[in-house]
């Protein structure tokens, strides 16, 4: 497991592009036949991806966690961004199609990821935060995720937000997860932008074409920077940073949060006139 230490608001203005990428970008997640995990000191999040091939992949603990098993003291959300697959939790097995999600609560020592035989591989995006309470394993099908349409064609940001793990959906200790789909002809996400000091947020951009890129905006509203991102790369947003982006082609992204509260609407707006 790789460890990433977040830069703070004091160091941020003086960082080079490479330093920003090393501190806030999580790449190298999609590697066939492996589980890739990154530990973030920000809210003690773990970001990863499991891409099983012929054999199931076991989610093992890591020395960084100082735990007997991965979910001994933490919860996990796994969103399938690949072909159909299976997640085994103990003696139970759960089939997940593309854009289905499974929530796995604290206290499940045996977790395995599998692709269906004779099929393209599944790709499970993993997001985990510490948990002090136990909630049951829950499946959220893409058809069951709560949709909200926002934005407009005129502002190039018409999109549908699908909420999976949230106060009115699958229950968790502090994890919140969902997926945003950009409508045809729209390119901007989360614009106008916002911050929320009560929790950090992590984006995974996916279904990004090989020759396309995402220009992700970050930083305080009055001193923004950008990172250029590819398919299946994640970016970390501390509470003081906006998180918005624009793509050269259509794309989707999974947003996940952990921290002080689970209220999706708890945001501090960053009006366009305030941004620099």
Mean pLDDT: 95
**Corresponding CATH superfamily:** Jelly Rolls
Coarse shape: globular
What is the CATH top level name? Mainly Beta
Supply the number of helical segments.
Answer: 1
Strand order of the largest sheet: 1-3-4-11-6-9-12
Account of the protein in words:
- With 276 residues, this protein is an all-beta fold.
- Helix content is 3%, strand content 43%.
- It has 1 helix and 24 strands.
- The strands form 5 sheets. The protein has a 7-stranded mixed β-sheet with strand order 1-3-4-11-6-9-12, covered by helices on one side. The chain has a 7-stranded antiparallel β-sheet with strand order 2-21-18-23-15-14-13.
- The longest helix has 8 residues, at 17-24.
- The chain is globular and about 55 Å long.
Produce the secondary structure layout.
Blueprint: E1 2-4, H1 17-24, E2 25-26, E3 35-40, E4 46-50, E5 57-58, E6 74-80, E7 85-89, E8 92-96, E9 101-104, E10 111-115, E11 124-130, E12 138-140, E13 146-150, E14 159-165, E15 176-182, E16 188-189, E17 193-195, E18 199-206, E19 214-219, E20 225-229, E21 233-237, E22 242-247, E23 252-259, E24 268-270
Parallel strand pairs: 1-3
Antiparallel strand pairs: 2-21, 3-4, 4-11, 5-10, 6-9, 6-11, 7-8, 7-10, 9-12, 13-14, 14-15, 15-23, 16-22, 17-24, 18-21, 18-23, 19-20, 19-22
């Amino acid at each position: 497991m790789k460890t990433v230490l977040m830069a703070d608001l004091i160091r941020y203005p003086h960082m080079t592009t490479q330093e920003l990428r090393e501190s806030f970008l999580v790449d190298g997640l999609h590697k066939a036949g492996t589980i890739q995990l990154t530990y973030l000191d920000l809210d003690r999040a773990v970001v990863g991806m499991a891409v099983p091939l012929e054999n199931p992949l076991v989610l093992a603990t890591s020395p960084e966690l100082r735990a007997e098993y991965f979910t001994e003291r933490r919860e996990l959300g796994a969103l399938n961004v690949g072909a159909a697959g299976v997640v085994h939790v103990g003696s139970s097995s759960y089939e997940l199609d593309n854009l289905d999600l499974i929530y796995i609560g604290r206290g499940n020592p045996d977790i395995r990821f599998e692709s269906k035989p004779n099929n393209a591989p599944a790709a499970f995006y993993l997001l985990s935060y510490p948990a002090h309470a136990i909630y049951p394993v829950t499946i959220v099908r893409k058809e069951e995720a709560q949709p909200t349409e926002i934005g407009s064609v005129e502002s190039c940001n018409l999109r549908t937000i699908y909420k999976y793990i949230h106060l009115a959906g699958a229950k968790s200790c502090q994890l919140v997860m969902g997926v945003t789909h950009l409508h045809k002809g729209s390119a901007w996400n989360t614009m106008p932008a916002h911050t929320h000091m009560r929790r950090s947020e992590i984006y995974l951009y996916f279904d990004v074409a090989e020759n396309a890129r995402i220009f992700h905006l970050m930083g305080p509203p009055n001193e923004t920077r950008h990172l250029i991102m590819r398919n299946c790369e994640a970016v970390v947003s501390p509470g003081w940073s906006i998180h918005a982006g624009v793509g050269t082609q259509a794309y989707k992204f999974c947003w996940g949060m952990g921290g002080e509260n689970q209220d999706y609407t708890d945001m501090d707006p960053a009006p366009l006139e305030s941004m620099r």
